[in-house]
């Protein structure tokens, strides 16, 4: 068995009560049956009957009954888990024990990454000078996998996309993402023709890895980015964002208000200053997109959907940047803690709110954004 893990995976630790956006509130928490039984057996130690805070739904799954502000009833005022405090970490449900870790198996390959809905993951990525991958093997043969040829092909394409993002850091992010997406589009064409030979793509990849080619492409693309189109696009997709209460809801309302009142001229002036400020996050963006590409372009066996997933991730980035931009425009600066909160909140919403996902996909189709040209409207960097 081969184990391919992002380098933060093995030593990740929850920041617990120091977390600015706890994962124990705001979304559906599934409790496995073994954990539920443990809660029943240890009701006395917890001081709460299991039936008071865990319910069995129509689909047969046990879920937590969220309390005020959508918080887990086991979450203390100091954002610590009563299950862990009273019983120990081994008594957590699988959901809480594994999050934010993401595991995917492709035959004899197990891939591990981390969700960016977790603020600690984002903070660690902001502090890293680069992303590495750990690859180890053991004697376990793994299970047979009928799509292994596709996995190897898709893996080679993904590596090429990561190379474009990682090894051409002096080129604007818009250009690197455009080139990476173009490689993915070509790969999907080969896949649809059943010509899954990564060597076919190597010449195009080698071209993109030449700085003079990317610099030339960059000049061409910058001319194609229209601030008015970008303003209208961001303004139009903002209403799909969902937020029920608290700090997150306030940020959404402030962002929508800015785009309703500011107008294009003010937007363009504020955006110039915002882009200058973002220079401090240059390395973080490389790390962010390596994580996104690693997670999002391996839709197997329906590899054609990888293009949609990449565009969806780009739209997610657009929403993150749109909200961060408004915070900057209002305050004159973007605080690191605010930025982490925004990224984790948007990521959480996009990962778990099916209504938001459907509405956003509809908007993307309306704007004809599922194309390299459409990608340009969404990159605020």
Round the mean pLDDT to the nearest integer and report it: 89
Oligomer: single chain
Q: Please state how the strands of the largest beta sheet are arranged side by side.
A: 5-6-1-7
Based on secondary structure, the structural category is alpha+beta
Rg of Cα set: 22 Å
Task: Give the N-to-C terminal Cα separation.
Answer: 39 Å
Uncertain segments: none
Report the biggest beta sheet as strand number plus sense, adding barrel if it closes: 4 strands, mixed
Shape: globular
Helix content: 55-70%
Approximately how much beta-strand content do the residues carry? 5-15%
How many DSSP helices? Answer: 18
What's the count of strands? 7
Give an overview of the whole structure:
The chain is an alpha+beta fold. Among the domains are: 28-97, no CATH class; 205-378, no CATH class. Helices cover 57% and strands 8% of the residues.
Features of this protein?
4-stranded mixed sheet, 57% helix, 381 residues, alpha+beta, 3-stranded antiparallel sheet, 7 strands, globular, 18 helices
Structure described in brief:
The protein has 381 residues and is of the alpha+beta class. The chain contains 18 helices and seven strands.
């Amino acid at each position: 068995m081969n184990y391919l893990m992002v380098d933060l995976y093995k030593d990740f630790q929850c920041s617990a009560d120091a977390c600015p956006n706890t994962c124990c509130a705001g979304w559906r928490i599934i409790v496995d049956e073994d954990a539920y039984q443990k809660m029943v057996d240890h009701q006395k130690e917890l001081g709460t009957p299991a039936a008071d805070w865990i319910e069995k739904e129509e689909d047969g799954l046990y879920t937590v009954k969220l309390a005020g502000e959508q918080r887990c009833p086991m979450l203390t005022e100091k954002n610590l888990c009563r299950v862990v405090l009273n019983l120990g970490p081994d008594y957590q449900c699988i959901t809480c024990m594994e999050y934010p870790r993401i595991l995917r198996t492709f035959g004899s390959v197990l891939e591990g990454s981390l969700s960016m809905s977790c603020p600690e993951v984002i903070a660690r990525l902001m502090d890293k000078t680069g992303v590495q991958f750990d690859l180890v093997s053991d004697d376990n043969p793994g299970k047979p996998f009928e799509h292994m040829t596709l996995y190897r092909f898709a893996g080679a394409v993904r590596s090429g996309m990561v190379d474009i993002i990682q090894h051409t850091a002096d080129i604007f992010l818009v250009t690197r993402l455009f080139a990476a997406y173009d490689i993915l589009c070509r790969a999907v064409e080969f896949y649809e023709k059943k010509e899954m030979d990564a060597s076919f793509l190597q010449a195009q990849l080698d071209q993109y890895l030449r700085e003079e080619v990317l610099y030339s492409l960059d000049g061409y693309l910058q001319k194609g980015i229209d601030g008015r189109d970008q303003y209208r696009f961001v303004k139009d997709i903002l209403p799909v964002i969902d937020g029920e209460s608290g700090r997150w809801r306030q940020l959404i309302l402030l962002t929508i208000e800015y785009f309703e009142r500011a107008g294009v001229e003010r937007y363009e002036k504020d955006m110039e200053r915002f882009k200058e400020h973002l220079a401090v996050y240059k390395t973080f963006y490389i790390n962010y997109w390596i994580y996104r590409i690693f997670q999002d372009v391996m839709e197997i066996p329906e590899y054609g959907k990888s293009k949609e997933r990449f565009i969806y991730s780009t739209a997610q980035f657009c929403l993150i940047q749109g909200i961060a931009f408004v915070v900057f425009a209002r305050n004159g600066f973007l605080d690191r803690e605010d930025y982490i909160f925004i990224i984790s909140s948007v990521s959480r919403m996009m990962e778990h709110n099916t209504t938001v996902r459907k509405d956003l996909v509809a908007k993307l189709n309306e704007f004809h954004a599922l194309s390299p040209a459409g990608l340009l409207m969404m990159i605020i960097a």
